[in-house]
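Re: Re: token formats

Sure, here are both.
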Amino acid sequence: FSQVRVRVVPTQAVEEHFRSHTRPPTMLASTVARAMRPTAAAGLRQGSLVNRARFSPAAPAQVRSARRSMAAAASANPIAIFDTSMGSFEAELFMDKTPVTASNFVDLANSGYYDGMHFHRVIDNFMLQFGCPNSKDPKSPRAGTGGPPGNTKYDCAGKSISRDAGGNIPDELVDKTSNTPGTLSMANTGRPNSGGSQFFINTATNDFLDWFGPGDSKHPVFGKVVSGMDVVNAIGKTKTDRGDNPTVPVLMNSIKIQ
């Protein structure tokens, strides 16, 4: 998912096709292609199965709170609470595995950066892409091309990390957590150190996007949904236009960190 309009493609031939037909860098996953619809449909559907009882958004607030507390206590990692126009879901942020990437997300979320944005790219049985500031206008043709302000800094375990002039952070290719259903993964342009604020949530097993795999895609995972996966899957099934943009905008009211 890149800032060059993230495009996910499982084969070199498809990747070459999309490279020759894509617009100048925007921010989709380096290999998430506009027309890329999972070809191994059966396998992806199987990979996207979730335990609906475990992730039920209708569970009482105290139950969801308990789940969140248990997850946080088990890992000491922060929990991000996503409040969208289609419901809420929560994700553990892997501060213990990918502190540079997770801290970037926490810094942006705490500043209110993501509030008011929309999911600008949704492909059923594949992923949901989010985090472009241009998506505050849900129909903006520039959605998928933006990122954080350049030359800014954020704290990571007491150390200051700098974003470059384009708002991009250093690649953190250290943890080998795969792009499985429910994981949060960084979008980039396909070039090194080109991730900023955009990320995607996998709704299928997309291991061809793993940075440690044999392909060209380099998308490190930095979190995973721990509650409300059915909300994520519902967003994934919204109707979209030819550009994979939801016809009825899906708004991010807020992202809170606990």
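Second one below.
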Amino acid sequence: MSVASSLLKEVASTRCFGGLVKQYRHQSSALRCEMVFSVFLPPQVAATATKATTAAASTCASPSAAVTVPVLYWLSGLTCTDQNFITKAGALRSASRLGVALVCPDTSPRGCALQGEEDSWDFGTGAGFYVNATEAPWKQHYHMYDYTTQELPSLIESNFPVNPAKQGIFGHSMGGHGALICALKNPGKYKSVSAFAPICHPTQCAWGKKAFSGYLGEDQSSWKAWDATELVQSYTGPALDILIDQGTEDGFHKKDNQLQPDAFVAAAESVDGVNVTLRYQEGYDHSYYFISSFVDDHLEHHFRILSA
């Protein structure tokens, strides 16, 4: 899927650590609604990117920058928007130093006027779960998997000086689930992957059961195609070195059993080419205080793999 450059509308642009934080709107063909995303362009390409996107918007042509940088896609968790990671994670200093672009999409379609869309915080708006819905009325708009893995990367590659051969994906909670399944379902597309407190086994937790029954229907056999713990068992693609951080005082893990990282590690143990490093961080919870404490480690993890 590709979105014409002329339909990319800049909403905001702010300088940060020598680079640029930008926010854009566009009409999504996958989601059939207007979507917003944020990007961080490091100083290595910020000036070029500004000129390239301006030229692309006027000519509907792709930018022809001589310099490109690795790109990381960040997928946020329940209730979040494209702004949470950019403003709270403290990732931009390291991204600037390493010369890595960051792309942060929203977490669901918005404003689609579907019945029930705004009824709860863990389903509908802000809770797209990075799946392709097959049930009415959600299947009209809720194709976040296609948007995340196809439409948005096509848009980014057409308009910004990023290297699609050096792209990774990471996320938090629902977005950690999204990062894991996107990497596992697209062998070789994402060279690096990591997650903070991911929902690792959604077919076996309350959040996942609610989302999957609504978006995918009651046939639980179809849910397995969207569950990282199920997917990893049949993975046969290029080697993946996965970093996962989990706080020991995360109530969604400690009390509610929503995350289940140990199940994912156990499932991956017998899979050739999949290495999972699960780090339990003592005393940390599920918040952006946790993410900001270890985000530099994750950026270094991605940069090491993408620079190899």
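DSSP finds ten helices and nine strands in the chain. The beta strands are 9-16, 19-28, 33-41, 69-75, 101-105, 162-172, 192-196, 240-247, 274-281.
- S.
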